[in-house]
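Students often ask why inverse folding is considered easier than folding. One informal answer: many sequences map to the same fold, so there is more than one right answer. In these notes we will look at a single instance of the problem. The structure comes first.
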């Protein structure tokens, strides 16, 4: 049997050939402009998804460490607050006066002088100096110093002088009439607290 021949001179064959060529051209353009970019975009999205999943897995692996870090931050915050109460950012004169007044009352002595003195600026901190005089019985003054040693601030006492109270005669008379404590000694000293240098 003889294979059919295609007559390209026939207008119907030419139209059919043009339709096939036009269809092929449209298919090629569609493939080039839609399929190839979509495939490339799909590959890019797939690659990004893999990277994001790997990053998520890494983050999830770190989650226990994050909890530990939050706990460490909380613990260190408490320590910082504690250190700030011992070594404040600035002079805390009102707090110091309240503490000395409380300790004086509890130990049974009288604070006759509390005067701020010149501050001394050091390389990393400031020394806040105060001149203090207290009068009381020998044991009461010792109790006051015991309270002072346990205050929440870092303090230093210097230039300590303890001598007979100038009001001892009056105090003895009051003691003989009413009882109580003889105000026998007077202590004068420089009290130094420390604050951070800004």
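Output (designed amino acids):
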């Amino acid at each position: 049997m003889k294979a059919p021949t295609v007559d390209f001179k026939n207008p119907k064959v030419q139209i059919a050939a043009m339709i096939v060529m036009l269809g092929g051209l449209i298919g090629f353009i569609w493939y080039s402009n839609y399929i190839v970019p979509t495939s490339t975009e799909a590959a890019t999205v797939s690659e990004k998804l893999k990277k994001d999943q790997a990053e998520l897995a890494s983050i999830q692996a770190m989650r226990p460490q994050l909890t530990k870090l939050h706990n460490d931050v909380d613990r260190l915050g408490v320590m910082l607050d504690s250190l700030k109460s011992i070594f404040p950012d600035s002079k805390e004169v009102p707090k110091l006066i309240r503490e000395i007044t409380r300790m004086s009352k509890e130990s049974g002595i009288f604070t006759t002088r509390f005067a701020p003195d010149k501050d001394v600026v050091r390389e990393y901190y400031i020394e806040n100096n105060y001149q203090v005089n207290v009068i009381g019985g020998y044991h009461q003054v010792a109790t006051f110093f015991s309270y002072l040693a346990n205050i929440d601030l870092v303090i230093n006492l210097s230039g300590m002088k303890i001598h007979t109270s100038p009001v001892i005669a009056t105090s003895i008379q009051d003691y003989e009439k009413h009882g109580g404590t003889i105000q026998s000694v007077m202590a004068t000293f420089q009290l130094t607290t420390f604050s951070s240098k800004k």
